[in-house]
């Protein structure tokens, strides 16, 4: 159990900088999810904490101690890999006990710890099997078990659920979170799946192109996205963005105009979440529906803003029978709208 | 699910396997049959008549101390060739696998010796160690060591082993290198996080994962040492001194074509066939079981 601190951590491969300085402090026992699209540097960041990649600049500390120069084994961490990285020639028991055996623990104690972990993960019937005789979910558990038995200060997860099917993923998500809660071990969890990030994180780091776009609780990021990227990456379906011009207490988007509660002026980008759309025959905005996706609990309507090329998606509660070509008029609550600078993508605080 | 390809008639499948069958028949079954047949006779030196002796050739061979010595020589030789060709190859592969820059160049250079024909490799080593003009023997002489593989059994054996194994290092290197590349990086990293340092990881993770390759190379190299080293031995020592480097396959040649005892030579071929067959069956039965995970 320990805190993890990143101070302006940078990573360069040759002359290419891939991580441009990430700083954050992770509290003891916190569950942090690093989320971002492929190639954003999230795995590299995690591997720097693990010690599998060198830190080009900045400082990584675990439990208040600088670990930049330490080997992975000396950092007191455990890692769960995307492909599980189990030792294929060893039984489940040997896999889980490998680290302890290297640490020269007495055999009886290794057995006891492995048995405890196996019990916790319901792996007891499989202890003598080889990894290839296990299902994906069981392998995932063995990888977890290998991390748990060593009682590390920090858990590192590198997309551990992306090889599982959807149903198992939801189940393992809860199990991992529950396990981490019970053990109280600080965890860093990398994923590209924003739903995983939303559901598991105490706080999340939204990464894009080597930068931390926003660090905050899932609801903070959802409700007050600091950048256009964070706004669009978190939330499903993705936030709609429209370019408009604000002037004199109203925002004009093409031919339509929305009332504003702020003294914003000039060109802005506005974000409208599909689930925040309020259908209204008198509403100021309109879209031409192209396709409907009935999901049961809600219905997604995909289309374009009337008379414009901007793609727009609306999420309506319940079942809604959409007809292609139909025009849907709607309004939004202006108080909820985030505004972004069209050039930098940074949030513009709309002071009232 | 049925994955086999099925044919309707007999003609097409027959045509498809015909080339392999014909080649095996001409180059393996026919000569093997001939060898078995000839091993039952003693022909006269001019090949004009043959006298049936039953298993006489075999009886003679098995009681011949020279032949039994050749068995031992072959065992020592093939063990050494296998070791000397595999251990350095594995070492080089491990080192090349860790390289980041210039790995391609090293790889290419390390493969070159394999392209050298065994007889040429033999001549190459022979020149280097030649007792009168050899570079290496001259330096050894300067160091006060009198190298003479023409007279010294051990030195002769050492030289043919090195000359035979040298080219094979390249071959084995290729396989080991490919196998090392196939070991998932994350498994190694997991072991590193688990606290295993390089050599510990090598012995407990990498080497076990290489075992299918190692087993394959073991079989292939033993077969190589048994049969394909003829050229090297012929050029360097011709089986000498005092038959110290006469391995079974060389004895087949020297008894048959130099000594003109074709009956004995044929009987030796048959014995060799049985030995290699038995060895292979043994390897597959007892070692292969342990190497799969």
SSE blueprint:
The complex is a heterodimer of chains A (about 350) and B (about 290).
Chain A: E1 4-13, E2 16-26, E3 31-35, H1 42-50, E4 57-62, E5 65-66, E6 77-80, H2 92-102, H3 107-120, H4 136-149, E7 154-158, H5 166-183, E8 186-191, H6 194-200, E9 203-208, E10 211-216, H7 218-223, H8 228-233, E11 240-247, E12 250-253, E13 256-259, E14 266-272, E15 278-279, E16 285-294, E17 298-305, E18 311-317, E19 327-331, E20 339-340, E21 347-348
Chain B: H1 11-38, E1 41-43, E2 50-52, H2 56-62, H3 65-98, H4 103-111, H5 118-129, H6 135-142, H7 153-182, H8 185-193, H9 198-228, H10 230-236, H11 248-258, H12 262-291
Antiparallel strand pairs in B: 1-2
Helix pairs in contact in B: 1-12, 2-12, 3-7, 3-9, 5-7, 5-10, 7-9, 8-9, 9-12, 11-12
Main location (chain B): membrane
Function (chain B): Part of the ABC transporter complex UgpBAEC involved in sn-glycerol-3-phosphate (G3P) import. Probably responsible for the translocation of the substrate across the membrane.
Keywords (chain B): Cell inner membrane, Cell membrane, Membrane, Transmembrane, Transmembrane helix, Transport
What does this structure look like?
The complex is a heterodimer of chains A (352) and B (293). In chain A, 24% of the residues lie in helices and 34% in strands. Chain A is elongated. Chain A is α+β, with helices and mostly antiparallel strands and 352 residues long. By secondary structure, chain B is an all-alpha fold. Chain B has one domain (64-291): Orthogonal Bundle (MetI-like fold), CATH 1.10.3720. Helix content of chain B is 74%, strand content 2%. Chain B has twelve helices and two strands, in the order αββααααααααααα. In chain B, β1 (41-43) and β2 (50-52) form a beta hairpin. Chain B is globular. At the A-B interface, β6 and α2 of A face α8 and α9 of B. Chain B: InterPro entries: MetI-like, MetI-like_sf, UgpAE/MalFG_permease. Chain B: It is found in: Cell inner membrane; Cell membrane. Chain B: One of its GO terms (biological process) is transmembrane transport. Chain B: This is sn-glycerol-3-phosphate transport system permease protein UgpA.
